[in-house]
Structure formats: C-alpha cells, structure tokens
Amino acid sequence: MGYKIKDLGNKPPMVEQAQFLSSKERFLFFVEENRALVWGGIFLGLAVIVAIVTLSWLNQNNQEHAWELEGQAQTVYLDRPLDDVKKGQENIKKASGMFKDILNQYPGTPSAGVSSFLLGNSMIEEKNYQGAIDVYTSWVREYGQNQILLGLVQQRLGFAYLLNGNREAALKAFDAVLANPQALNKDQVVFELAKIAEADENITKAVEQYKKVIQEFPLSPFASEAALRVKVLAPEEAKDSPSSETNDQSEIEKGSPETPQFQDKEEGK
C-alpha cells in the first residue's frame, strides 16, 4: 500500500502564519483581507442609524404641526356666534375641511384620531348623518384600541344612526358602549335608551331605564332628570321609592321648627 505524504511547502505563507495568531489578530487579519466588505457594513449601519434618527425627527415634527392645525380647527369649530347662524355654519364647514386636511396630511398621528372624531361631530352639525356614520365607523376600525374614547365615539355613532333613521343600528351602538367595561359614558347611554323607550310609548321600559340611571349612577348629572321623568311617568313608583322617601325626610328635617327648639333646650341644660 502506498502512502501519500503531505507537502507542507505548498501552503501559502499567510495561511501558515494565521494558524499561530490570537483571536484578536485573526479578526484584524479578516478585516485586512475583507476590507471592502467591512467598510460596506459600517456604512450600512451608519445609514440605518441616520434613517432612524431622521424618521424620528420627522414624526415628531409632523405631530407638532398636526396638533397646531387641530388647535386652529377646534377654535374655528367652537367659534359659532349664537346670533349669526350663517356664520356658525360657515365655521363648521371650514373646521370640517381643516379636520380632513389633518387626516390626509398627518395620518397615524395622535391628533388624527381626535380630528377624525371631531370631523364626525362636524358632519352631524352639517346634518350629513351618513358621512358622520362613515367617519365614526372608520374611527372604530382604526383607533378602537382607545377603550375610553371608544365609548364616546360609539355613543355618537348611535346618535348619528338615530338621526339617519336606523334605530336598530343605533341600539346596537349603544349596547356596545354598555358592554365596554372602560366606557365612562354609560349613564348617558342608559338615559338615551330610556328616552327612546319613552318616545316609543313603552312606559314600563322607559321607567326601568330611568331607574337604572338613578340606582347605578347616583352622582350622574342625568340622575336628577331621570328621577323627574320617573315622577312624571310613574308617580306611584316614584313616591314609594327609597330615594324619594329619603329626600322627603330630609326636607321635613330641614323645614321642621322643632329641631332648633330641641337643640336650644339641650344647650340650656
């Protein structure tokens, strides 16, 4: 059997020397041998960093411009003189155009979500109910992760459906608010449902909803009006309710002349 003897003399000098280099020296040797590749990677990394910084600056700049434009649009929207209906309508129309500009020029910014909501409100003021429905629906699809503002948008959506003659869709929108645990406007939605039931002459359901406002949201600004509606629609129930008894008792105590006399006697003792 023949044996093949390795010829060590054929190895390149650089390869032979690389076998005796440390890891640091091997890295430097690699850099030296692949200089073009290394410099290309460095320039690529720098380009990525510059791009990230530039995009961050542009995003911040866009947000500032968007908030500034939205502030101007809100000023125009709110500046509606009560004694000049035509001027008010012109301001609403102008504000709607400004809100649309924000959505077109600065999509994805935080102000775009607020502008979308205010655009829907402006369209309701313009009696463009279908347009408002489209805007609110788009808001729910794009910004629905904001659970707190979502409840308010869905309430406005239900209101737009009512004005547009679609009561079934309105009720679904109101039910969506009640199903949202983070919604802060449930008291108003229940009150609106009571008003709808009253308009349908469903007195039993209307009284039930008004009582729900009183019992579940006693600190709500709608609670006092709900109590008044219960007295009008079901005076016997309102008279027998614990809340009315408490109110009557407090009024008696306030108006009774015996209370201060009793206090005077105690003080004399």
Sheet-strand content, in percent, reads under 5%
Mean pLDDT: 78
Number of helices: 14
- What's the story with the biggest beta sheet? none
Query: What form results from the Cα inertia axes?
Result: elongated
Radius of gyration: 36 Å
Low-confidence spans: 242-269
Count the E strands: 0
Structural class: mainly alpha
What is the multimeric organization of the chains shown? single chain
Helix coverage percent of residues?
A: over 70%
What key attributes describe this structure?
14 helices; mainly alpha; disordered C terminus; 79% helix; 269 residues
How would you describe the overall organization of this protein?
There is one protein chain. The termini are far apart. The protein is an all-alpha fold. Helices cover 79% and strands 0% of the residues. It has a domain at 185-257.
